[in-house]
Amino acid sequence: MKLKTLLMCAVASLALAPAAMAERGSDGEVNVIMWQAPSTMNMYLSSGTKDIIAASMSLEPLAGFTPEGELFPRLAQEIPSLENGGIAEDLKSVTWKLKDGLKWSDGTPVTSADVVFTAEYCMHPEGGCAQLAKFEGVESVEAIDDLTVKVNFTEPRPDPFSAFVGGQSPIIQKAQFEQCLGAAAPTCTEQNFNPIGTGPFKVVSFKTNDVITFEANPEYRDPEKPAFARLTMKGGGDAAAAARSVLETGEFDYAWNTQLAPDVIAGMEALGRGKVQAAFGSLVERIHVNLTDPSSSLPEGERSTVKHPHSFLTDPAVRKALSMAIDRELLVEIGYGPAGKPTCNLVPAPEAWASPNTECLTQDIEGAKALLDEAGWVPGGDGVREKGGVRLSMLYQTSVNAVRQDFQALIKQWWSEIGVETELKTVDASVFFGSDAGSPDTLQKFYADVEMYANNFEGNNPEPYLAKNTCDKAPGPENQWQGENTSRFCNEEYDKLVLELGKTVDLEERGKLGQKLNEMLTKDSNAIIPLVYRGTASAVSNTLGGVQLNAWDTELWNVADWHRIEE
């Protein structure tokens, strides 16, 4: 089904959703299970989707995106435009006006000073902000008055809706976080676990990688919402157990990310307790290639850093051969069925930004062998290729998940057929997608040769997503391992094109530049090896109303509208 059709279905179902109860807290408790357990409530210190979703219960941006990818105001009075004067005619600034009477959950007023501080927090030169790409091209943020804030750009910005827009870029309270700037940010445990927010729920207790208890925010701007007085978010387990807890046992109302084979889901749904909802946005399962050396023989703090290039993955022929050996059609068949499609792109949508690149869709084992032969990688006595004393032997890591482990097993086999030895490693998802700078097993630390995961961008502008891969955003000890460029890809031409994209106004030309940037990361370099364009899928109980899956923002974007349905 085409993306447009899927989005139209989402709009239709939204219109048919029953109205929420007209009294805050009247529907009691709702239970959500996140099998990848949240490890922080501060999305500025984590790029993990699990943490972003959890934090979005309390922390909100100025504006968000609907399921069809359109902007709508959250804390802002309206969406700035050229017509209403919010966007400057020279496109070098955007001015936001906060809604009147907004309060933090502690009862204090929300002001433009909080917005200015949020920018200072993420853009601090001594800090490590996981969402720094959201502030790409921002020169300054200034308070015009208590309810008006102006974002100034270094160059004209045809699409100024990045900073403070979408669930990944919320406003945090200055009074709570002002002692947490720069290098101090990850040390502020109380603030990071219990943020004061404006959202429909406030944190009551946070147990990292375990359980988060929320209560309805008494200061929430809509006095009739949320319908639930309490929300419990349980973490841990696996995707199958999470889906069963909704679709079979009824223990939970909502299970996030039911990443399971289609036949498994169908069997659970047959019991009639609930359904899996799905929506396509920009989610791509892919392999990141580590262009730096993760060897444990290096001093701590230098592993997987640009100080030490990788011994063989810096060879373009090796990276291309790895991609050529993969049968993406088979991966889709066993892992996702109609909820996935094979892809060669990191950016699969919007259509104008999606490259016509389809070269990788045909598996070519013999071609991969020939490429490695030509590059001088010769099979040794054990069949593993080597050159100059270096063997093509890799550690391949990902999170614990049945579908991902199936993918690992198949890809290991295909790589063995071309003479590449692969050791598989699985990491608990709560750790792999976690924010602990001291852990050796996070996707940012990347103490492996290749790793596999998926994430997405918000809204219909992939520019900030592509900007994550500039040279200055490689994770390292200097930014508390919060850089977004996990492959450590560094290309001066790429960085120049990102800057050019940031000041290009013509929509068609922006799409072409986006395609070029995508191709530089994928088919031109194979620093990122896309596998499957995935739909977002989660299990919903038949007794839970108001749920609208959103693949263009945080998944629980409208939790304030959830309510209980009596069967």
Automatic annotation (TrEMBL):
Signal peptide limits: 1-22
Subcellular location: Periplasm
This protein's UniProt keywords: Signal, Transport
GO CC terms of this entry: ATP-binding cassette (ABC) transporter complex; outer membrane-bounded periplasmic space
Residues passing through the membrane, by range: none
Listed GO MF terms: peptide transmembrane transporter activity
Domain of life of the native organism: Bacteria
Gene3D superfamilies, A to Z: Dipeptide-binding Protein, Domain 3 (3.10.105.10), Periplasmic binding protein-like II (3.40.190.10)
Domain Solute-binding protein family: 80-465
Family classification: Belongs to the bacterial solute-binding protein 5 family.
Protein known as: Peptide ABC transporter substrate-binding protein
Provenance organism: Paracoccus alkanivorans
